[in-house]
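From the pipeline queue, job 12 of 40. The input is one protein chain; the requested action is below.

Action: predict structure.
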Amino acid sequence: MAPSSLDPFRIALTEPSWDDLRIFLAVVAHGSMNSAAKALGQSQPTIARRIKVLEETLGLTLFQRGPNNLDLTEAGHAVLEAAAPMGEAAAIVSRTTAAYRPDPDAPVRITATASVTLFLSLHAAELHEDAAPVEIAYIPTRQRLDLASGEVDIGLRMRTLPEGTDDLVVRKIGQIAFAIYARTENPTAVIAPPEDPTLSRQAAYVAEFAQGRTIAARIGDMPIRYQAAKAGLGAAFLPCWLGDSDQDLVQVMKPEGDLIEDVFLVMHRRSRNRPNVTRVANALATLFKRNQKALVGG
């Protein structure tokens, strides 16, 4: 009887190809060969054949096949753990190469904190008009997405210049101030951020204000914190442009010192040669200049 091609004692004579491992990762990510085939733009029989080739090359059974499901075997989990970093690295390579040959008509992606993105959204019509016909994509996050690898095109960052600026174009476009707001001038409750006060300047400021007051809730998302303060839950740390514009809120403590932060527009140096990115950057600078008084609580 001929030995099985999946004989565990058989020594694989070749290394698995990256293309087959990529297909394996896609099957795991999408949960089935049919879904992976659609995502990769290939046929289901081709995907099944490549998975079989990969199993034969490794001398392992990677999937336990059921009538309506496809589960990883123990060996499959081990291969997944080893191959996943390769998939992540390949994605970074793809983003980096795309950053050097960008689609001129692709949306210009802006990343900023939730408070700054909310400000941009309220002025999105102005930005759209000033940057037209360029399409803008807004990505609100506190994570610093990578400009070098092309995760985003423009970053709006506050307080300090980003580290490692050799390949970055950094432009200060204004300032933004924060203060504590509530429904009454002497609130008895506070809405605090969830961070440890020893690790966050904002959390430390609120913790000092909260002494002798009740912590009504801990809310990290600024727009939700704003709505809670507006509903009367307690005092909240908010950007001045938002708190000052709401007639239901009063400023309990004025912004001062490091509660007034510089705002920097950051691009990778490659973006200087991309007219669409430059157009959006100029529109952002104009917007901040036009609204500087409101942004600093004037």
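Job complete. The CA atoms of residues 106 and 135 lie 7 Å apart.
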